[in-house]
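Pipeline run #58 for the internal structure catalog. This entry was flagged by the ingest filter as a single-chain record with no existing model, so it goes straight to prediction. Upstream metadata was stripped on purpose; only the residue string is passed forward. Reviewer on rotation: M.T. Logging verbosity set to normal.
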Amino acid sequence: MRSAIVTGAGAGIGRAVALALAARDWRVLLCDIDGDAAARAAADAGGAASPVTADITDDHALAALIASADSLTAVVHCAALFPRISLADTRIGDFDRVMAVNLRAAVQLTLHAARAMCSNGSVVFLTSGSGLLASAVDPFQQGFALYGASKAALDRWVAGVAPELAAAGIFASTITPGAIVETPGLARAGVTPTPGAATISAERVAEAIVRLAEDRSGRFAGQRLNAAAFEDWR
């Protein structure tokens, strides 16, 4: 049976991905720092889904998570911090917290996956339009400088290591929703989409991510993909 680890699986896109993989007969480890949320999601997924309470900024916990996956085939990193915070209120500790989850954990997952997957594996990282330079002038993006910087760095990391991973039969890519996903996390950040703004469901994003997790052609390796345009690249 194919085995996958999904971070941030207790809610939002991570939860949708875990449920979608489980529905396609994957063995899924639902990782979340909120153990109760992970347990609820695993119960909804049923089958071979198992909740894992873990802080992905803890190197030992992350290593143990990878080691616990039998026949690891895919890693999907959806966990993220996206505080909306002005420059005047930003402290270096805020930078450290955001980068630890959004970027450092992604780098660690890449390193672990490269060792744990012999071949025929996929690593998918959820990125964001906030990481694009063109987004910086969008009023909606004000306050998300730290989040955007972490996602820009994530895109560059994956593009840079993807060729080496592909040579070993592991295909890495990033995927942006391509529109606003109204998740519980977004609501907690106090973010309300402007009237008429394009939106996309977590389930539709999950459908595109599952496509990447299952792809063995390698044609998406190193790419920054858009879930809203899924029908165009599937």
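catalog note: The mean pLDDT is 92.
catalog note: Residues 3-233 form a domain with the Rossmann fold fold (CATH 3.40.50.720).
status: ready for reviewer M.T.
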